[in-house]
Amino acid sequence: MAAVLDERSSSESDIFPYMFAPSLEGGLVSNESPAPADPRVGLAHHRTDLANLRTGLALDRTALAWVRTTLTMASFGFGMVAFFRSLRQAAPTPDVVRLHQGAIFFGTALIVLGALSTILAALSQWLSLRKLRRGETPRVSQWPLSITVSMLVAVLFLVGLWILLAR
To answer: What gap in Å lies between CA 138 and CA 58, rounded to an integer?
Structure first.
């Protein structure tokens, strides 16, 4: 027994002392089946609970970031329509009328995209928290909400640019 313990390097026993402690049977304690009285088991459960709490809080921060983003999109849409409406009232030329119509289209699209993104963010938050409460690991989908909304905004910009340049 002493020969087995002496063959190890001292750094291994410093890092993993529980793996190389002598057991009552004369062998080495395995890390595969810890004894039920091991105090580290309770600590591991406590750390897992804290990890779940941190994950839940991170999901909440992500949801709040989505709310800020979607409110900004919708506010920008409303602001764009109002700005071009005031410009149209000040100088009702054909070019300004055309710009106002484009602003109405683009602003409405931003408002709808903001509302849709808010609903999708709430749904994603709810599903992730439900998985976390069940003890499952929340997974990142192949098309996360951020990529989906970014692609929709890019398509919206391209359509708006095409409409603006086509006239």
So the answer is: 12
